[in-house]
Description:
This protein has 352 residues and is mainly beta. It folds into two domains: 2-198, no CATH class; 230-349. It is built from four helices and 28 strands. The strands form eight sheets. A five-stranded antiparallel β-sheet has the order 1-10-11-12-13, with no helix packed on it. The two termini are 37 Å apart.
Amino acid sequence: MKNKFLFLTLTFFLFASCSDESGPSTQNPLNNNNTDSDWLIPENLIFDGGPGKDGIPSIDEPNFSIASEIDFLHDRDLILAIQIGDEVKAYPHPILDWHEIVNDEIGGEKIALTYCPLTGTGIGWNRVINNKETTFGVSGLLYNSNLMPYDRSSNSTWSQQRLDCVNGPNIGQRAELFSFAEITWENWKEAYPGSLVLNTDTGINRDYGRYPYGNYRSSDNTLFPITNDDDSFGKKERLLGVRIGEQFKAYPFNTEVGNELVKDDIEGTDVLVIRNTQRNFIVSFLPESGQIYQVLDDALFPAIIEDNDGTQYDILGTAINNRSQQLSKPAQFIGYWFSWGTFYEDIDIYDN
């Protein structure tokens, strides 16, 4: 009965909170979301989330304010942040919870930030596909309780955490990723008070002070069926997935106090993972040849690691005293454990 109540409660939030004035369609949910009969995933495992196609509106003309001027966020709210070239931007979860996709341009790169509140996955995608710029929208469909965007240039449907197009003219195309860092607002505004932050001037009437999915984040339930229920971790425990080639490895948060540096190997490639549970971040970088890195005391934040030349780097991999110097980053994003366990059943997990 408890699970049934949770399902009905969350379904209400999906219908009432995330949709526009019109109700959910009574037609086959796949009718408006595919241009081809072939799917790379079983059609019987694709579910209608409720609001319908574009019922959850993407943000296509984002507006930003300086971090020090933002007053609608709480310290523990999470944000997704990225630096490309000299441009640094942050995107708050409380806005992404209601819109799921932001089509933007950062440092000259055309990026769609795709975010699924049901799997906790925020991933940057290149909006240039086959040399043609496009934007992404919310299809209203879900696979393994995860967002399925569609690209507006071809009406092809994609699977966010599979990272590929599963139906339409672009079927089989892999998403080109941009890596974002995820951290609390309290720590971000300390590290980057002059950064640009997506603000609530979205042109859409939403209550950004209210989380639209009730107690979903604290419950041990999923809203829609998943194909593999792995109990290695709690369903909503957040882990970082790092991809080298086609291989993912998952990193849980640490139990130590302060910063911890993990030096690891994925498919023969050295990676650095820095974890800090108190500041609620876990990020990965690719070490430069010949450099040796050490973790810094948490009191030196926003600096988190230092190389043998004495250069210190922050959570974006940017040198503290030279903003144009950055460490390379592998493809990576944080997600709830249940999503890693169902999309990547054989995922390697770092052993603490």
